[in-house]
């Protein structure tokens, strides 16, 4: 009780005497710099829901299981193999610069030794130990920034209004709501005074307004403990950065600070039967998209109830470690790349804007081109390997051609660095690149005869934001043609396609191809990502054309992405 009173008094005094000055753009940039530079974080969803391997909190809220049966998982949560040191080293070796762990999900179970009168693993589970303290300590030993996930929602707390989707405890009771706000403010005081996190990752703000949550006061409270703290967007309008889920924004986010949170399979927490893992290549390709748009990837792991991280997740993290250690120069501290029309693929710029990074998810058979970049090119090199790269730069036309030997390409994503004497200045982008490339191919008589009669009249295709390569459309826009130069390192990726895909085939030999949609939630309007594996046996030595038959004229999603209420 003495500790509670002291914490409350200290918090009240700090908030009362904190004069909230309007933060300038430059001051915010300084505060956010480590986050902007970090690029990769690891999200940890750990809690009692791993006992049965079911959806965290939502399973009882949606009525898939009773609240009583859900909370009975407390009896099976042992954390017997929990090893904070091993976790932290694994995350660091993967290339992460920060980690965010669930201190309390919507079920209300605290993973630290909270003095509030509510569920906690130190008292109500066989684990009988604080899991947050050792993890935070190990993160700091490994020079990783500390992020704490905290659910504003608490569906198990007796004074919280919502209980299940079809039932509430009360609808208008200011006294009970005030008790809940006092409770969660006290928990935030504990987290800040005990752990002093670098970042708060809130969740659940959609259930109440900023005034009801007292979001402004929450922000003031957290800054009174740490004036450099960073807060995600889920504190109504009082956060610092946006948090899209499960899919990279198609459009460039307006907020310069953002982070994609992404599961390795289809679940945040551990689920016994979820073996639908994305491949390391698919996840690395998504990571590169985040880098190219100036954002971060917060990649999720879901440990088993005993604290063991599943083997498939470890293998993914190890492949991230291989790729990030090799290409660190082209990851950390970079900024968003060139606008559309300059290069068919992701790009990024060094912080001083004097180096341009090109990311290739295929092994090219011919030179790659960068269009409309002004400045003096001093060198072109392969990142992560000392290999001479031949290039030709036409300064008058502002075009760069780079020849990349196939034997030096990375099995996942190759990175080329283009060093300039001064800052890169994008000029006029190439607006009709796909049609020009198609016209060049059509001059090859053998290729022409094999492909053109089967394609008919075509028009320019979709944006490189949706497909990182050249594409065309049939006259009625029902068929999307993807032009491949070289050998893809993994499945082709189409983002933001609203249409259903009816059939996919290789033009010229009629081989039918399969596809997979990942990241599509049935109740969300945001499309999933379409992945199309292309076997090497069907590739054309000049250029391969993949035909994608749609259920109607092509329709594309072009928004930034959205917060999904399932975290």
UniProtKB/TrEMBL annotation:
The record marks 261 as: May be important for catalysis. It comes from the Bacteria. Residues 1-21 form the signal peptide. The keyword Hydrolase applies. It is an enzyme of class 3 (hydrolase). GO terms for molecular function: alpha-L-fucosidase activity. The keyword Manganese does not apply. GO terms for biological process: fucose metabolic process; glycoside catabolic process. Keywords: Glycosidase, Hydrolase, Signal. Residues 22-329 form the Glycoside hydrolase family 29 N-terminal domain. One of its GO terms (cellular component) is lysosome. Its EC number is 3.2.1.51. Alpha-L-fucosidase is responsible for hydrolyzing the alpha-1,6-linked fucose joined to the reducing-end N-acetylglucosamine of the carbohydrate moieties of glycoproteins. PANTHER family: ALPHA-L-FUCOSIDASE (PTHR10030), ALPHA-L-FUCOSIDASE-RELATED (PTHR10030:SF37). Belongs to the glycosyl hydrolase 29 family. This is alpha-L-fucosidase. The lineage of its organism: Bacteria, Pseudomonadati, Bacteroidota, Bacteroidia, Marinilabiliales.
């Amino acid at each position: 009780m003495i500790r509670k009173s002291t914490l409350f008094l200290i918090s009240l005094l700090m908030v009362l005497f904190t004069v909230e000055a309007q933060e300038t753009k430059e001051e915010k940039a300084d505060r956010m710099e480590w986050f902007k530079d970090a690029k990769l974080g690891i999200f940890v969803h750990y809690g009692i829901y791993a006992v049965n391997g079911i959806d965290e909190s939502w399973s009882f809220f949606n009525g898939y299981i009773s609240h009583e049966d859900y909370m009975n998982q407390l009896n099976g949560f042992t954390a017997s193999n929990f090893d904070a040191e091993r976790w932290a080293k694994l995350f660091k070796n993967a290339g992460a610069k920060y980690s965010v762990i669930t201190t309390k999900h919507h079920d209300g179970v605290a993973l630290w030794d909270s003095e509030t009168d509510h569920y906690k693993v130190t008292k109500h589970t066989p684990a009988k130990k604080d899991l947050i303290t050792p993890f935070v300590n190990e993160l700091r030993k490994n020079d990783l920034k500390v992020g704490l996930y905290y659910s504003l929602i608490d569906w198990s707390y007796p004074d919280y209004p919502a209980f299940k989707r079809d039932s509430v405890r009360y609808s208008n009771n200011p006294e009970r709501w005030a008790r809940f706000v006092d409770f969660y403010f006290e928990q935030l005081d504990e987290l800040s005074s005990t752990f002093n996190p670098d970042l708060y990752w809130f969740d659940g703000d959609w259930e109440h307004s900023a005034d009801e949550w007292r979001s402004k006061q929450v922000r003031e409270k957290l800054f009174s403990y740490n004036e450099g703290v960073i807060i995600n967007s889920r504190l109504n309008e009082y956060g610092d950065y946006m948090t899209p889920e499960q899919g990279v924004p198609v459009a460039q986010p307006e907020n310069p600070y953002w982070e994609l949170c992404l599961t390795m399979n289809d679940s945040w927490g551990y689920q016994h039967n979820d073996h639908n893992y994305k491949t390391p290549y698919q996840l690395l390709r998504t990571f590169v998209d985040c880098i190219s748009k100036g954002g971060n990837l917060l990649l999720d792991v879901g440990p088993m109830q005993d604290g063991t991280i599943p083997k498939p997740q470890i293998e993914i993290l190890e492949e991230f470690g291989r790729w990030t250690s090799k290409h660190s120069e082209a990851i950390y501290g970079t900024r968003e790349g060139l606008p559309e029309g300059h290069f068919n693929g992701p790009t990024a710029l060094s912080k001083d804007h004097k180096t341009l990074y090109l990311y290739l998810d295929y092994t090219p058979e011919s030179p790659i081109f960068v269009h409309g970049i002004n400045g003096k090119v001093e060198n072109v090199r392969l990142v992560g390997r000392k290999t001479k790269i031949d290039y030709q730069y036409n300064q008058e036309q502002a075009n760069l051609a780079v020849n990349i030997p196939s034997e030096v390409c990375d099995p996942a994503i190759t990175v080329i660095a283009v060093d300039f004497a001064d800052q890169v200045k994008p000029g006029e982008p190439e607006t009709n690149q796909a049609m020009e490339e198609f016209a060049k191919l059509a001059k090859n008589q053998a290729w022409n005869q094999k492909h053109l009669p089967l394609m008919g009249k075509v028009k320019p295709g979709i944006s490189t934001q949706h497909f990182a390569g050249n594409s065309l459309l049939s006259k009625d826009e029902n068929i999307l043609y993807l032009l491949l130069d070289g050998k893809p390192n993994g499945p082709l990726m189409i983002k933001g396609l609203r249409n259903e895909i009816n059939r996919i085939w290789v033009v010229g030999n009629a081989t039918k191809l399969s596809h997979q949609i990942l990241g599509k939630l049935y109740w969300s309007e945001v499309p999933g990502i379409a992945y199309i594996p292309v076997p090497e046996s069907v590739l054309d030595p000049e250029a391969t054309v993949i035909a994608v038959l749609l259920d109607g004229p092509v329709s594309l999603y072009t928004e930034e992405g959205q917060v999904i209420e399932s975290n």
